[in-house]
Specification:
6-stranded mixed beta sheet, 8-stranded mixed beta sheet, Protein-Tyrosine Phosphatase, Chain A, 18% strand, UDP-N-acetylmuramoyl-L-alanine:D-glutamate ligase, alpha/beta, 2 domains
Length: 428
């Protein structure tokens, strides 16, 4: 099979959560452990950093990978989902895995796949770990796919576990309370391995403390370790000061990712760096500064408060759950514009009403659906939106919706594209 045939096989034969939803989710690690055994445990050949959380784990993963890469470590990065190309999920020093390696891997283990029927994510994790071993990487930053405890990535024993925050997402799988969701995320905490917590609430902090105590894991909270102050913000980067408990101080540090919410993520990243240094990693301040200035270039990171055009200003962001949309709306409110145009598409296996209720009622909406089975039909999304006071037309594709928004907007307007990862993917 060539690369295209390989992907068609995987997309059609193996359950893929991001396309079909909960039916692809497996509530155990049996397949992941079995695949790891077949591959002779590649994850034991490199050091790793494990990152979970409801929001912010993608930004945090990419920033940490950029820092390690700039320091000179041969660095692997595993993230999900991809936006345009499957190979975005697996990178070494910012370079995507080759098409040939993907095809050869699937061809080699085709019989095992047919017998085991692993999920799309399970085989992807196996492929990633095998590739990182093949490339002789020194350290890998690994983002969980969903949850933590039962996530396919959770067979590793990392140098550091990071949990960015806990919010309302995937409640049908992870639990209907913040405590239950936190417990699933806390499943990445390993015995005697330090864990860093980005944001907490009264409810979730208790969960993390209990889990860390059970595992004799040193636990750190970002709020106690790093203070960040925004100094200036520009369309595509931020300038901030940071002071760490260790005594390290950064002045006028530039981050090549926009959006005020990145201040939370950068505090987590800087705190993680200090813990890694204490664990034996060599990370120089000058390389931290260079890496944060060039995150997108170093890792290929896209889709987070990304500027797609000016006059009118067009911004896309993959935030899609309640907490993510709240953050996006706060950011939109800080921008000066004449009219707001929202190109919105969502998935059909989540309760979209809480998110729709957050969208500004004065906005002109362009409802659409991405080209995936999980996408909520645009007409249905529009009907639900009308119930909460939103107005607009529906379109059969994301690109048609964006084109209509561009035609209607003036140079002083703002067009925002979001609602789901898949909506954003189709405009990048």
């Amino acid at each position: 099979m060539n690369y295209t045939e390989t992907l068609n096989y995987l997309f059609s034969k193996l359950p893929m959560f991001h396309r079909i939803g909960a039916v692809a989710y497996k509530n155990n690690l049996d397949n992941s452990i079995a695949l790891d055994k077949i591959l002779h445990q590649p994850h034991k050949t490199f050091k790793s950093i494990h990152i979970a959380g409801t929001n912010g784990k993608g930004s945090t993963s990419n920033m940490l990978a950029a820092v390690l890469q700039k320091q000179g470590y041969k660095t692997g990065l595993f993230t999900s989902p991809h936006l345009k190309d499957f190979r975005e999920r697996i990178r070494v020093n910012g370079k995507m895995i080759s098409k040939k390696y993907v095809s050869d891997f699937v061809q080699q283990y085709l019989k095992e796949f047919d017998i085991m029927q692993p999920s799309f994510f399970e085989w992807t994790v196996a492929l990633a770990f095998d590739y990182f071993r093949h490339c002789n990487v020194e350290v890998v930053v690994i983002e969980t796919g969903l949850g933590g405890r039962l996530d396919s990535t959770n067979i590793i024993r990392p140098e550091l576990s990071v949990i960015t925050n806990i919010g309302w997402d995937h409640v049908n799988l992870l639990g209907d309370t913040l405590e239950k969701i936190a417990a699933e995320k806390a499943g990445i905490i390993k015995e005697n391995i330090p864990v860093l917590i980005g944001e907490t609430t009264v409810q979730t902090k208790k969960v993390f403390l209990k889990k860390a105590e059970e595992n004799a894991s040193p636990i750190y909270f970002v709020s106690n370790n790093c203070k960040v102050q925004l100094k200036k913000k520009f369309l595509e980067y931020l300038v901030f000061d940071a002071e760490l408990k260790s005594g390290e101080v950064y002045r006028n540090l530039k981050l090549s990712l926009a959006g005020d919410y990145q201040l939370k993520n950068i505090a987590t990243v800087l705190s993680a760096i200090e813990i890694l240094k204490d664990s034996g990693f060599s990370i120089e301040k000058k390389n931290v500064i260079k890496a944060l200035l060039n995150v997108r270039q170093l890792t290929g990171f896209t889709g987070r408060w990304q500027v797609l055009g000016t006059k009118p200003l067009i911004i896309a962001d993959t935030g899609h759950n309640v907490d993510g949309i709240k953050t996006v709306i706060r950011q939109i409110c800080k921008i000066s514009f004449k009219k707001l145009h929202l190109v919105i598409g969502m998935v059909n296996d989540k309760d979209v009403m809480p998110v729709l209720k957050l969208l500004p009622k004065h906005a002109i909406c362009y409802f659409c659906n991405a080209k995936i089975p999980r996408a909520m039909p645009a007409k249905e999304l529009r009907s639900k939106a009308i119930e909460v006071g939103l107005q607009g037309e529906y379109y059969t594709s994301v690109k048609r919706a964006l084109l209509s928004a561009k035609k209607a907007a003036t140079a002083q307007d703002l067009i925002f594209v979001g609602g789901s990862t898949f909506t954003v993917a189709e405009v990048l």
